[in-house]
Amino acid sequence: MATTIGLADIKHVIRLPQYWDLAELKKWELKDGTTFDQMIVRMGAALVAFNATLTSGYLSNFLQVSPDMLFEYDVGGDSEMLEEISEYANPDPILAESTGHMIPMKDYGGALGWTYLGLRRAHASHLDRDIRRLIERSRNTWEKIILTRMWKSTYDAVGSGGRSMPFADGGTADANYVPPSFEGEVFDSSHIHYFRQTDDSAGRVAAMKAMAETLYEHGIMPPYDLLIPTADIALWAAETEFPKPTRAFLETVGVETRANISDDYIGIVELDRTWAFVKPLNRLPVDYAGMIKPTGFNSPAAPMIVRYEEGYPLGLTLVGELSNFPMEQAIAYFTFGVGIANRVAGAFTHFAAAGNYVDPTIS
Predict the structure, then answer these.
(1) The whole model's pTM is what?
(2) 3-state DSSP assignment of residue 192
(3) How would you class 178 by CB atoms within 10 Å of its CB: exposed for 0-12, middle for 13-18, buried for 19 or more?
(4) Distance CA 50, CA 60 (A)
(5) Collapsing DSSP states into helix, strand and coil, what is residue 361?
(6) d(Cα 109, Cα 268) in Å, to the nearest integer?
(7) I need a surface site. Which of 8, 59, 275, 336 has the fewest CB within 10 A?
(8) How many whole angstroms separate alpha carbon 240 and alpha carbon 16?
(9) How many CA atoms lie within 13 A of 51 on its CB side?
(10) How confident is the model over 192-232, as pLDDT tens digits?
(11) Which helix (H) or strand (E) holds 139?
(12) Contact 222, 212 (CB under 8 A)
């Protein structure tokens, strides 16, 4: 009876025909003697490790996941109380309103291009190198799409008429959207979470306060994460609201205030009634900052949502074919899309002398 491939930890990331015989495939060897089954385990382990980072890396703190394409949420609110009623009079009906948008999903992929002669003469290290480059490009795709949607102030088209909305944008993308009221404060469709401030110390302080208050007024409680460009660290660290972090190998002498925070952050900012951890991002260009609430992966309160294809893992799937060598002309597939789940859980600033907010180009 044939021994089929059934490696539990990698069977979802490397798709092979069900009745490929493992004993027979062990006869296929690379130039250095690595057998096919050994190579499959190496490739599978790399893909499994990458896929795990999508739900445990820093950006996962802002994400929930779902296979659903439709997303609906409450709009508006008021400061009215319930009516007093008498024995024979019914109160007026309470009818709430909602709006919604779609979550996109696209297919991304990369061909490894392993030819018959290439595999016949390859060493395992050569194939490992290709897998590392595949994972690097996959990580670039994941991070750039998430950060682009996070900072983008306009909607993404879904199909011919659908839309995937930004954070609150003043009613441009959806004139029906009004943020829900909070503790008696009501909003209208012109409410906006994208700002422009001057590119100086006063502008940075004003941006921190405006973004923090914008989150706080919706009942989103601190701490927040203040996302800044790595290239602008020195500018932000010079602000008086910026206590530096403690370090295990440094001793603080005197009355200097230090922040007891994780090494993921470079400091905190203390504002009028809120505070935030400061996180630099290499991909964010200069003259931008954002403030957003981390909730932990897959929290219902997460500000962003990732749509994945049901029946497939969130992450890379490698599909091979058997022509002359197994995995010849293998192709990697990465299917997902990113949208906004809570349209008031993030606020963003562009620093410029004049004008309005302009979307950044994420690198």
Answers:
(1) 0.85
(2) strand
(3) buried
(4) 13
(5) coil
(6) 39
(7) 8
(8) 58
(9) 24
(10) 999 999 999 999 999 999 999 999 999 999 999 999 999 99
(11) helix 124-151
(12) yes
Two tokens at 17? Answer: 């025909």
Average pLDDT over the chain, rounded to whole? 84
pLDDT of residue 9: 44
Do 218 and 191 touch, CB atoms closer than 8 A?
Answer: no
Q: Which residue type, as a one-letter code, is found at position 109? A: G
The pLDDT tens digits of the residues spanning 255-310 come to 455 555 666 788 888 888 898 999 999 999 999 999 999 999 999 999 999 999 99
Q: What residues contact residue 287 under an 8 Å CB cut-off, 6+ apart?
A: 199, 229, 232, 350, 351, 352
Residue in this structure with the two tokens 């981390």, named with its chain if needed = 294
The first and second tokens of residue 264, run together, are: 């993921």
Spell out the residues 6+ positions from residue 223 whose beta carbon is closer than 8 angstroms to its own. Answer: 268, 274, 275, 276, 277
Distance CA 50, CA 213 (A): 37
pLDDT confidence band for 67 (50 / 70 / 90): very high
Token pair, residue 227, equals: 């996302």
Residue 271 in tokens:
């504002």
Joined together, the tokens standing for residue 97 give 């309103």
Cα–Cα distance, 43 to 31 (Å, whole number): 17
**What is the rounded distance in angstroms from the CA atom of residue 294 to the CA atom of residue 278?**
12
DSSP β-bridge partners for residue 229: 281
243, 295 Cβ separation under 8 angstroms: no
Per-residue pLDDT, 244:
63
pLDDT at 55 over 60: yes
Rounded CA-CA distance 212/10 in Å is 43
